[in-house]
Each structure stands twice: as C-alpha cells, then as structure tokens.
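user: Kindly work through both lines:
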Amino acid sequence: MSLDIYLFKNGFDIQKSRADIDATYTKLQAIKEELEQLEGDYKEATLSNLNVTHNLNNMAKAVGLYEVLWRPEEIGITTAFQMIVPLEEGLEELVANPDKYKTFNPPNGWGDYDIFVDFCKSVLRDCREYPDATIEAGR
C-alpha cells in the first residue's frame, strides 16, 4: 500500500473531475464490450479470408480478373456464386499460357505468377464451397 499526495490548481473541481472520469470510464467499458461483441459477430460470420499482394494487379488485369477480384461491386458481383465462372475462365487462361502471364511478375519480387494462380484457385474453391456468401473486397 502507498500514500499519494496530489496538489491541484486553485479552483479546480476535483470531485466533479473524478465523477466525470468515472462516468466516462464506465461508458468506455460499455463501448469496449460492444466492440468485442461486434468483432466476434464479424469473425463468426467470416467464412473465408484470402489475401494477395496488390503487386499482382497487372497480371489480374491482363487475364481479365482485376474487376472480378479487386472491384467486384463495380461489375455487379455481390455473391460468391457470381465469381465462379469468371474465375474458372481466368484460371484456364492463366494455366494455358503461363509464359505470357509470368511477364507480369512484379519486378520487386513481391508476388508472382504461381502465387496469383494459387490465390485464384483458393478463391474459386471457397466460392464453390460457399456460393451464397456475400463478397467484400478490401483494398
């Protein structure tokens, strides 16, 4: 145990300040609990979360998958089911012409053709598994 001595400016309302701090702290605790609940709901609702470097966007553009993956909402894709056919077609093209698409490997080495193909396969797999899932692309 210890003893603390505080000196405050003359006229400072210590009791009001402590009451305001306590009230605000109580609100903060309630907000933290609400935030934890919201984050839990978000995590529970997440069926899949896949990530790929933006450095592969030129490869995606070249094969016609940029809008499908990076900006689905701009072309009316809202569910996983709507991504299946474009992904199948894009993957077929990628696999059929690897040398063409390897030319889009980023010069800085962050990402490459193989990573992009694997990413597309993973997205396609998850879209097939959860066709009714809502799509959100975080950029």
